[in-house]
Amino acid sequence: MSTTATAVTAGTWTIDPTHTEVGFTVRHLMSKVRGTFETVEGTLVTADDVTASTVSVTVDLSSINTGTADRDNHLRSGDFFDVETHPKMVFTTTGVTQKSDTDFVVAGDLTIKDVTKPLELAVEFLGQGGDPWGGTRIGVEATGQISRKEFGIDFNIPVAGADKAMIGDKISISINAQAVLQA
């Protein structure tokens, strides 16, 4: 397997926040709640050897949107993200492994509430091409999973008559992103 990314131009790419979605899913009682973070910024630096590429992404935690204002405000509070003290979530790569022409594992450090833990994302390269504004774009989709308790986000409520809590610990992450090559 080649580690040369012939389909990706080497260079610095800026995440396009209007065409990027950072989403999550968590169990809540007997169903799942989905949400997104609406403010994200970051940079991808692609190398001729794709395994030498890097990613740095910052998410504004106050931009959380689950479709319910009261829940979003609670998630911003000290029970969860404590955005007044810890306004950002940051991911920075520590390594890239190429699995196929379009599939990669991007390992990195995720920091939430001043706690840094390793995170592996399964990344699918969706392609590179021109856009209507004269730029060059790439698209990627990534998935991963974290334990919210490992980041000190452990608020919960026991469910009466059940042997479980209201909110699950495992958070599934899904990212769809476009980035624009910088001139």
State the low-pLDDT regions, or none.
Answer: 1-6
- Structural class based on helices, strands and sheet pairing: mainly beta
Overall pLDDT confidence? 94
CATH-derived topology: Lipocalin
Question: What would you note in describing this structure?
Answer:
With 183 residues, the protein is mostly beta strands. It has one domain: Lipocalin, CATH 2.40.128.110. The protein is 4% helix and 55% strand. The chain is built from one helix and eleven strands, in the order ββββββαβββββ. The chain has an eight-stranded antiparallel β-barrel. A hairpin with a 5-residue loop joins β9 and β10. It starts with 10 loop residues before the first strand and ends with a strand. The N terminus is likely disordered.
Descriptive terms for the model:
183 residues; Lipocalin; 8-stranded antiparallel β-barrel; disordered N terminus; TTHA0802/YceI-like_sf
Secondary structure layout plus pairing:
Blueprint (H helix, E strand, L loop, with lengths): L10 E5 L5 E8 L2 E7 L2 E7 L7 E7 L3 E2 L3 H8 L11 E11 L4 E10 L2 E16 L5 E12 L19 E15 L2
Antiparallel strand pairs: 1-4, 1-11, 2-3, 2-11, 3-6, 4-5, 5-7, 7-8, 8-9, 9-10, 10-11
In short:
The chain is mainly beta. Helix content is 4%, strand content 55%. It has one domain: Lipocalin, CATH 2.40.128.
